[in-house]
Specification:
Layout: H1 2-5, H2 7-17, H3 20-33, H4 38-62, H5 66-74, H6 76-109, H7 113-130, H8 133-143, H9 148-156, H10 161-167, H11 180-194, H12 197-209, H13 214-250, H14 262-268, H15 270-303, H16 317-334, H17 340-367, H18 369-372, H19 379-405
Helix pairs in contact: 2-8, 2-12, 2-13, 2-15, 3-11, 3-13, 3-17, 4-11, 4-12, 4-13, 4-17, 4-19, 5-6, 5-15, 5-17, 6-7, 6-15, 6-16, 6-17, 7-16, 8-15, 9-13, 9-14, 11-17, 11-19, 12-15, 13-14, 14-15, 15-16, 17-19
Length: 411
């Protein structure tokens, strides 16, 4: 059924658009700036739709995922540098997501974080080992839809829709304003979290895993990108608005993951709180799956190893060992007591630096009619691709300075 094929986009969007970083980043943006940064989510959403559709199309036509293209188009030395940067971000993301799983399990069970980290690690390994790719798509993609409880909270609350509409348009403060740099930091963080490269690594590899062909799945690729990441944007905006409704009036800053579901408990009650926590568990779990597999996909594709969830673990041993190492290192770091939210912010900010190296070869190949034939970018896709590449360059140049100048957004 086509609805289940769209699950790839749903998993990539829910697990990438609404991971632990987005949950805290968007709720913090809502608690600090109200509806003012909705436009930053929209900017990121359109960008990831443009590039995920491109990556899926290139993967279908060439039968080659992102990191093979990076290696061949950029050359081995530059490609290896891109791989190293991407793997640092993948690992940081995996650490943050495994930590997020541990905290959600703690909120649901009452047990301490460290044993719950072990439970989360075991669960992650089991689902990656035994579930086929389709199973991963459906379980985590559709399970993450429980996050729609945030949308319901917004629709049933005293939302100022005119202010929401105003927030969809950029309205920056004056450069002399004391909070200008913090505003800029959140803009970069919110937009960049939507454009994280591991989302397209996973999406393009998933298109090959699912056996998409351009003759039959060209339209599906477009629908999946738009519907999946559009849904992710809806959820991210809902979290931001819900935080603005509940946390902004009280002056509460959601510095901890446990603060996020409280924005639905206040208007809707305890049942909504449990639904939100379960939705967060599926979304963060999906992001852990994305990050672990993206790390393994990247390594296997760059070095030419056997890879793919359609193969049994023993048929692609280096691929399997790589995602297992990612999960193992992640849980080992979480056991030290590190704050997963802090790790996620670092992964988002430093992920921005790797974005240009990831997206440029994809854009170049998608524009190449000699390579792509009739599936090459048309005028609209080409224009949007270069426009967003310029946006990505600006984000990459400003991310680290803003991180330092604002002390990670704390002033």
């Amino acid at each position: 059924m086509k609805i289940f094929q769209v699950a790839l986009g749903v998993l990539a969007a829910v697990g990438g658009f609404v991971d632990i970083g987005d949950l805290v980043f968007n709720s913090a943006a809502g608690a600090t700036f109200g509806y003012e940064l909705i436009w930053a989510v929209i900017v990121g959403a359109v960008g990831i739709i443009v590039y995920s559709e491109m990556c899926g199309r290139v993967a279908m036509v060439a039968k080659r995922p992102v990191f093979e293209l990076v290696r061949d188009r950029m050359g081995y030395p530059a490609g290896l540098m891109t791989l190293a940067a991407a793997q640092v971000v993948n690992l940081l993301t995996c650490v943050a997501e495994v930590g997020g799983i541990a905290f959600i399990l703690r909120y649901l069970s009452g047990y301490e974080v460290r044993p719950m980290a072990v439970v989360g690690f075991v669960g992650l390994v089991l689902v990656l080992w035994f579930l086929p790719f389709e199973g991963l798509e459906r379980v985590f993609g559709f399970g993450g839809l429980l996050l729609l409880v945030f949308t319901y909270a917004v629709l049933s609350g005293p939302t100022d829709w005119s202010a929401v509409a105003s927030g969809a348009v950029p309205n920056p403060p004056q450069a002399s304003h004391a909070g200008w740099l913090i505003w800029a930091y959140f803009v970069v963080g919110v937009a960049s979290a939507s454009l994280m490269p591991y989302e397209v690594y996973f999406f393009s590899s998933g298109a090959i895993e699912d056996g998409w062909a351009p003759e039959t799945e060209h339209a599906l690729n477009r629908v999946t990108s738009i519907a999946g990441f559009g849904l992710g944007a809806l959820l991210a905006i809902s979290i931001m608005i819900a935080a603005a409704l509940v946390l902004l009036p009280s002056g509460v800053e959601p510095q901890f993951l446990g603060s996020v579901p409280l924005v639905v408990e206040q208007p809707l009650g305890g049942t909504a709180l449990v639904i939100a926590l379960l939705g967060m568990l599926f979304a963060i779990g999906g992001a852990a799956v994305d990050a672990s597999l993206s790390g393994a996909y990247s390594m296997a594709q760059f070095f030419g190893w056997e890879w793919g969830k359609y193969r049994k673990p023993g048929e692609a041993p280096r691929f399997t060992l790589t995602w297992l190492i990612f999960a193992l290192v992640a849980v080992a770091v979480v056991m030290t007591g590190v704050d997963p939210v802090m790790i996620t912010e670092y992964s988002v900010i430093f992920g921005v630096v790797a974005m240009p190296l990831t997206y440029l070869p994809v854009l170049a190949i998608a524009n190449d009619k000699g390579y792509m034939g009739r599936y090459a970018n048309g005028p609209l896709a080409r224009t949007l691709g270069w426009l967003y590449f310029a946006v990505i360059i600006m984000l990459a140049l400003s991310a680290v300075p803003l991180l330092i100048l604002t002390n990670m957004g704390s002033g």
